[in-house]
Amino acid sequence: GMVRFLPGGIDDMVGWGVLVMGIGLASALFGAIVGCFQREPRHVLAYSSMSQFGLMSVGVGVGLATAKVWPAAVAAVSIYLVHHGFAKAALFAGDDARAAYGARRWLAPVLALSALSLAGLPLSSGAIAKVALKGVAAKAPGAWPQALEVLLPLLALGTTLVMARFLFVTLARGAKGDSVDPRVRLGRAVAFVVLSGFVAVFLWLIDFEPASYAAHKSLGSAYLWVLAWPLVAGVVIASAAWFTRASWISRLVGLVPPGDLWARALETADARWTRYQERIVTQADARNSGDAVEASVPSESTRLTRALRVATSAESRLLTWPVASGVIALFALVALLLAR
């Protein structure tokens, strides 16, 4: 969407490009930090996606800042998007396979392939994507190339830690799988293995010159080191956290709930409103008895309850397939009209 609708390649828009790069770096850092302290595998993957989309936004920002770099930036972001799509789909399929088969021995290494590929594992599609993005970052304006030379490997280290967290919460869910239909189990396993295979080889085989060029460069000794050290450092840090069982880590787990800070604010507001209602009812109960208690509750409480019921009913209707697909079709139609 950003590539399609932002006016890249028309003129140098350094200010807007720097803004997009800054937002991308902030998203990448925030997603990596919060993802490390989630409890559910799919919540970890969601924050990992936030982080990876932030990295892609850095490439878009570089292209916006320098018009002549826009084609290369679009190519690099496209490569990164393909890599991320296969890798993240493989990880979601891996979570399904774990649920179906349990924590089997064959699951861990195949799951680790896709997980570490997101961090730029050498010889994987992640290495090609990282090298392509790094090549575009070197063309950023001002002092940004030097800054990104330091920041991108550090963010790859953050990705490694997020993926270590994902592997831990996924494989620590017990050795027994769920009781599902054998055909469903087989389908989950096949999907997982096929997607993992695409993570390993797809970008090496695709006939796309920027991908071929990045693949060739990723085999150089200098790039192999740049790609490898964040993974090694991340594995060491994750292993140290595992063996030491640091208490401060367990206190941070769940500190930011799924849904980010907005969810925390809404939960806090809901808890305070609940306590307020309980206090009003308790006071009324002390003065009245029987039906008088309900009558003593303020009318604001009744109005809020009705509003919440309406909102809950509307949300339940939005979650049905016919309504959801209709809304998606409407948005698609609007996008097509805007793209004309």
Fraction of residues in β-strands: under 5%
Quaternary structure of the protein: single chain
Q: Order of helices and strands, N to C?
A: HHHHHHHHHHHHHHH
Which ranges are low-confidence, i.e. pLDDT below 50, for 5 or more consecutive residues? 292-298
Principal-axis shape equals: globular
Distance between the termini: 14 Å
Count of DSSP strands: 0
What's the main sheet like? none
Keywords:
single chain; 340 residues; mainly alpha
Can you tell me about this structure?
It is built from 15 helices and no strands. With 340 residues, it is mainly alpha-helical. The radius of gyration is 24 Å and the shape is globular. The two termini are 14 Å apart.
Summarize the structure.
The protein contains 15 helices and no strands. It has helices spanning 2-5, 14-35, 41-65, 70-101, 107-118, 125-137, 144-171, 182-205, 209-218, 221-244, 247-252, 260-287, 292-296, 299-318, 321-339.
Secondary structure topology:
Blueprint: H1 2-5, H2 14-35, H3 41-65, H4 70-101, H5 107-118, H6 125-137, H7 144-171, H8 182-205, H9 209-218, H10 221-244, H11 247-252, H12 260-287, H13 292-296, H14 299-318, H15 321-339
Helix pairs in contact: 2-3, 2-7, 3-4, 3-7, 4-5, 4-6, 4-8, 5-7, 5-8, 6-9, 7-10
